[in-house]
Structure formats: C-alpha cells, structure tokens
Amino acid sequence: MMYCKKCQRLYEGAVCPLCGSARRSSAPTEGDPVRILSLPFFEAAMVEPLLEEAGIPYYVMGWGAAGLGAQSSLRDIMVPYGYHTQAKECILDVFGEDSEIGRALPACEPDAPGEDPAE
Length: 119
What we know:
alpha+beta; Alpha-Beta Plaits; 2 domains; three-stranded antiparallel beta sheet; 3 helices; 6 strands; globular; disordered C terminus
C-alpha cells in the first residue's frame, strides 16, 4: 500500500496510477489526508452526516465549473489515513457496494495493522 502526497490517494504498485509519480509516494502514516470519494454536491451532502455521526474526522474540498452553482461542482471527501477503513465501512453500511456512492469508493484497502507496507 502506497500513498501519493500529490493526489492524496492510496494505491498498490510502484507509481501512482493518477499522476504517474513515484517520487511523491511513501507508505501512508496515521494522519495523512486520504481522498475517499469525489462526489457531486448532493451526494456528498448525504455522506457527510454519516461521518459526523460515526465520529470520523473529515473535511470536504469543493471544485468544479465556476458560475454554474454549487450543485454542479464535485466535492472531495477527505479523512485521515487512520480512519480510512472505518469511513469506507460506514459509507458501505448505509449505501451498499452496488450503489453509485459505494461504487465510487476506491478499491484499494489499507494494510492490516502491524503489517509492513514496504514488503
């Protein structure tokens, strides 16, 4: 399991599949911000209360086409690496793997506690 500091995503392999960089990658640490979802505004608004209720720290970064309103922009939902698995389980418990939100979750899973990600 590797973490790309530029893309803020977890991945398997030698280079980040999004940016192609290996230089900005390392084993994830507990507090690294991990982008778990990129969703349209309304879908992100359904996920945020779940994370709050579960006590999972998160923040949302918005981006999209200027002038088209909040509804047309995407929201990146970020959680610390240490909460990554808990956040995914919380989301899947409510929406399920076959939902649009469930399918948007990255497939990459963190290593089990105590495992050496460099092996």
